[in-house]
Write a structure and sequence with these properties.
Structural class: alpha/beta
Shape: globular
Number of strands: 5
Helix content: 25-40%
Distance between the termini: 16 Å
Bound molecules: 1,3,4-trihydroxy-5-OXO-cyclohexanecarboxylic acid
Radius of gyration: 14 Å
Strand order of the largest sheet: 2-1-3-4-5
């Protein structure tokens, strides 16, 4: 398959615990459910998915750098790195790929430190507060952007 047909799905720290972590905030679906949903949605749009989740900033940055070679766009939930990581932002910028940012919870209804994102102003689309459905929408939006 051509390199223009793959998206990178990035999930940041603690998202490996989805389903058991604060289910009242993040729901009962697991990371595997999220990755399946994105893969299914992407495949309907003729896209493949490479999924990465890590609790380590450098691992996420390396995966984003790698996307320069063979991905057409990025769907990312950077977890708490959203609010802290200039390095992740710089890595996303370096790819020059379209980015769709997604958060399960409505970060704007939560603590003030979650209101700022280092990613939102460089993202094509930002989806918050829709739970796991937000990933489906984010994937459809990226597919639309990729034409
Ligand atoms: C999150 C929101 C972040 O503030 C938090 O640190 C997360 C998950 C979300 O999906 O709602 O880990 O990105």
């Amino acid at each position: 398959m051509s390199t223009s047909k793959r998206l990178l799905l990035v999930n940041g720290p603690n998202l490996n615990l989805l389903g058991t972590r604060e289910p009242d905030v993040y729901g009962h679906d697991t990371l595997a459910d999220v990755e399946d949903l994105v893969a299914g949605t992407a495949s309907e749009a003729g896209l493949e998915v490479r999924a990465v989740q890590s609790n380590h900033e450098g691992v996420l940055i390396d995966a984003i750098h790698e996307a320069r070679n063979d991905c057409a766009g990025i769907v990312i939930n950077p977890g708490a790195f959203t609010h802290t990581s200039i390095a992740l932002r710089d890595a996303l910028l370096a790819t020059e790929l379209p980015v769709v940012e997604v958060h399960l919870s409505n970060v704007h209804r939560r603590e003030a430190f979650r209101h700022h994102s280092y990613v939102s102003d460089i993202a094509e689309v930002v989806v918050v507060g829709a739970g796991i459905d937000g990933y489906e929408f984010a994937t459809r939006q990226l597919a639309r952007i990729l034409g």
